[in-house]
Automatic annotation (TrEMBL):
Signal peptide residue numbers: none
Gene3D superfamilies documented for this protein: 3.30.530.20
InterPro entries for the chain: ORF3 (IPR047137), START-like_dom_sf (IPR023393)
Name recorded for this polypeptide: Coenzyme Q-binding protein COQ10 START domain-containing protein
Species: Auxenochlorella protothecoides (Green microalga)
Length: 121
């Protein structure tokens, strides 16, 4: 997050594909959220990241739905535009991004379970 503007945060997506490493980054701003139930954001137009990388316009939201006394269902929705330079690779890029997001959501689930508030004895 940005110390001067906590509504802004910088993100990076890195992967290996086609025999080389790729990294895309973007600046996001938080949109109005509903505490404990919804987080949403959109990328800041014109931001190209360190080194002038490609701009990746995107927006998304996380919804948290109660699923019992100690658990919830998390639903992630993301929309993004594949940069023009990468359009020829869109059919490969989309499943790659989906795989990265799936792995990140699984990692988040493990983190949440490991760090959930436990009743005091």
């Amino acid at each position: 997050t940005d110390a001067q503007n906590p509504a802004l945060s910088q993100w990076r997506l890195s992967t290996s594909m086609f025999g080389r490493g790729w990294s895309l980054s973007w600046l996001s701003e938080s949109l109005p959220n509903k505490p404990h139930t919804q987080m949403q954001w959109r990328s800041v137009p014109g931001y190209k990241g360190p080194g002038g990388s490609l701009e990746v316009p995107n927006r998304g939201q996380l919804l948290f739905r109660r699923f019992g006394p100690d658990s919830c269902i998390v639903e992630l929705t993301i929309g993004y535009e594949v940069p023009g330079l990468l359009q020829p690779f869109a059919s490969v890029l989309t499943p790659t991004v989906e795989g990265i997001l799936r792995t990140d959501m699984q990692r988040f689930a493990r983190y949440a379970v490991d760090h959930q508030a436990r009743p005091q004895a």
